Amino acid sequence: MPMGMADAVTVLVSRFLKFSSAHPEWPDRDRLVLSAGHGSMLLYALLYLTGYPGMEIEDLQAFRQLGSKTAGHPEYGHAPGIETTTGPLGQGLANGVGMALAERMVNARAGDELCDHFTYVIAGDGCLMEGISHEAISLAGHLKLGRLIVLFDDNGISIDGATSLSVSDDQLKRFEASGWHVAGVDGHDGEAVAVAIANAKAVSDKPSLIACRTVIGYGAPTKAGTASTHGEPLGAEEIAATREALGWAHAPFEVPEEVLSEWRAIGRKHGQAYEAWEKAAAKLEPEALAELTDPITPAVEAKIAAAVQQLKASFVAEAPKLATRQSSKKTLEALVPIVPGLIGGSADLSGSNGTRTGSQSVVAPGDYAGGYIHYGVREHAMGAVMNGLSLHGGIVPYGGTFLVFTDYCRPAIRLSALMGLRVIYVMTHDSIGLGEDGPTHQPVEHLASLRAIPNLDVYRPADAVECAECWELALTSPDTPSILALTRQGVPTLRKDASDENLSAKGGYLLSEPEGDRQVTLIATGSELAIAHEAAELLKEQGIAVALVSLPCWERFAAQDQAYQTQVLGTAPRIGVEAGVAQGWERWLGTGGHFIGMASFGASAPAPALYEHFGITPQTVAEAAKQAIG
Ligand SMILES: Cc1ncc(C[n+]2csc(CCOP(=O)(O)OP(=O)(O)O)c2C)c(N)n1
Questions:
Q1: Does the pTM of the predicted model rise above 0.85?
Q2: How far is CA 588 from CA 525, 557, 569, 581, in A?
Q3: CA 159 to ligand 1 centroid distance, Å
Q4: 159 CB under 6 A from ligand 1?
């Protein structure tokens, strides 16, 4: 792929791409996304040639080695100029849609002087075969993202052989049907590629696809055009013959000075444009400037803390019985107006998720001033587009669907975590408590499977107070994505005082404890905290010394020191309660602990009947506690 697309990408980078290698973070640079991440060397070579800081020839020599910047697939944060982590095919394409959308949204707020650039994506057959490509191109066409240009490496080859083994789509017609401008060119004809890119740039109300017909392994005399060049080494003989065929007489990793200096000049070409941007940016107040990149400044964090404190006080005063999806909506009503760049959305479940607030207007084709995105029934693309929105800068995205459909966006959630992005997933209907929709919609294994993803905070607030606290934590975690697992059904307000301290910040805390030694500790999350609370009352009536622990975020609790964990969990027998599978709970329950939750799929019935049927009740919890005490 790096050999086959080198010609087309050279045209793109040398003649069109607006960037300055000395200023890789320039917010108004064009974005270049290598969606076909297995071709990573193409990107690394470009970064070296154009003079990105810290990308040296030694880094290219350390390709795919431990600790190198040049991992097998491009990894965001490893080196300046890597705009996103790619490798899982199709993700980069959808990230590009998010970046192109972010560009228009920031442009609508900040104006042309500060935000006016293109997003280019290099995608292969594999990206276009993946289902996510359909969701992403459909959304991009609908939103008329004219500043998105995809160069398709149309080489007719994937790993198993010719793409004709498995696909016969007419890709141009397919994109056209989704509202794209399309063109097909010989990807080795530089002029043709240049004309196609210029034409695509001129089409302002449609994203563009340029299918570049290329030869995989271009230049390798016997292996070019075959699947074997995809992943197998060419071998010494073929490499020697390739050098000869391409007229390249230089030693490995030797770039002649005149070639390098020409490329380095390309890296400096847009220096004036950068300076003009800098001048325009200098006129902004610091807060306004921050809004172009990371809108959650210390000043905004302070506003969030104050708003959350107020919310907590009113929730404690009113003590509502409220679904946490509703308390989440109330929290958003307060936060959206004070957090610039906080952009909401849902995959067609806005009302159910409670994600749209009264002040948000809708992002529409050609009109990007709104603060709310209707992603349509496209959960996977929603996740990847949110990653793109976040990567672009200037936007803190949150998006909703049902918790059970985290399965549909899991690859994107995993990448939010791997890249360390501030992306917030608002996942409602988080257990059998959703009731009549039945087991297809009732998550059972999802909390466990999401908790297995590193660097992902999974929050399951128990009441309105915790919900506001968890939102604050999600918004103020710059390097960690968050899942908010929220109920459909009403839950009582269990917190009785609105302490200044964000009690959810440590992930778990004692909601109540007996005077003197405890005999048993009940630990619960989300809606099951109310059940554990009732169980605790039953036990107290029987003279049993019981402590009640709320554990809204395991990841945060796991990060606390041993002393705090022991103080909270105690040394008495522990009972865990959560309407999900037991997996993972052994970590908190220890030996002699007991878990009450789900061991099968759910069923269709009203929520109270389901809790009764599956034995998640105050009585079963109290009974288990008594047994544990012996
Ligand atoms: C989601 C996903 N599935 C499978 C793979 C493994 N894989 C990497 S490249 C590739 C074939 C891609 O073919 P194409 O896009 O045509 O790339 P080319 O062979 O032309 O470089 C596959 C299946 C992957 N990286 N991501």
A1: yes
A2: 12, 10, 8, 14
A3: 7
A4: yes
